[in-house]
Design brief:
Layout (H helix, E strand, L loop, with lengths): L4 H14 L12 H8 L3 H13 L3 E4 L3 E4 L2 H12 L1 E6 L7 H13 L4 E6 L4 H13 L4 E4 L11 H9 L4 E4 L10 E4 L1 H14 L5 E6 L3 H15 L9 E5 L5 H12 L7 E4 L2 H13 L9 E3 L16 E3 L2 H16 L7 E3 L2 E3 L10
Parallel strand pairs: 3-4, 3-5, 5-6, 6-7, 7-13, 8-9, 8-10, 10-11
Antiparallel strand pairs: 1-2, 12-14
Helix pairs in contact: 1-3, 2-3, 5-12, 6-7, 8-9, 10-11
Amino acid sequence: MAENKYEIVKRGLQTVIESGEYSVGDKLPTESELMDQYGVSRYTVRRAISDLQNEHYVYRIQGGGMYVDDWQGNQRQQAINNKMIGVVTTHLADYIFPSIISGIDRAISAQGYSLIVSNTHNNRDKERQSLRQMIDNKVAGLIIEPTQSALPDPNIDLYQEVAKQQIPCIFINAHYPQLDAPYLEVKDREAEREMVEHLMGMGHQRILGIFQVDDMQGLHRMQGFINAYMAHPEISYLSETVMYQSGQDMTKVLEQVARILDKPERPTAVVCYNDELAIQIMDVIRSLDLTIPEDVSIVGFDDFVLSRYLEPRLTTIEHPKEKMGLDAGKMIMARINGEEVAPILYDLKMVYTESITPPIK
């Protein structure tokens, strides 16, 4: 649909104001000058200016002309008055996210704020919808877990729009280095290396690592696995890895793992991207008439609550879920209040249980 003439004038003025060509308090061209510039009537110019006044881009001084209003400050005030914090996560229903969201809510509700939560299902199109919704709702701040953070992001333009509109934003679990925003992450790489080295210390040489590699968490965990083997070059050739992406047919991934574990020289231990995957791999191991941990030791990551009730209980790496949520809530409130904040990196605790044992000689 073609734009009306007044919309062309409005958009043109809005563009030059937002670009910084005119600063707050600068005098704008007169009505007559705008009429000549755009080839429109005085009525058209006045209608465009009226809209920009309502949106706090310009203000008039009687007999003194038109000036640039503090449009950014007014947008921030509108967002703050909204008292809503947007949270965009890759998953919602279960796993670690309810604890993270609960922690965020505890921190911000004490300051009179509420949450709008959106779930991308680790899908880029849904991430775009979520970000667009948060921007349009003029949230006071944003807490985001990036979708498929290890891959180039087609939604970077919306992240840039968030920055342009000066919406305070922080990232959890992963971040984009090109965006100037603080983040809260766990030391995935260091923790995975520590766990693999623990298995090596028990005598495991043939270890299989299974990692989701389209997010930075999985990529860092795989790097930790590789780094552990690089420190032991005499056995590095015995390592195996299986990589997959979110949305991939997991049946084929599990079949690939089954083939590896069914070989005569099979791995004696498996480390998994997370506990949810480890639970599936435990079923694969048993389907091959192998026992855990006597034939195959197994390790997860994130300390999923369900893994505590498995038999044997799953060895894992504890994710600081609720603390991350509390810290994220405090961090976004600090950003809203104009305070400088630094990134947070969490050390992780190993949870060694009966799902690992020295390999049978």
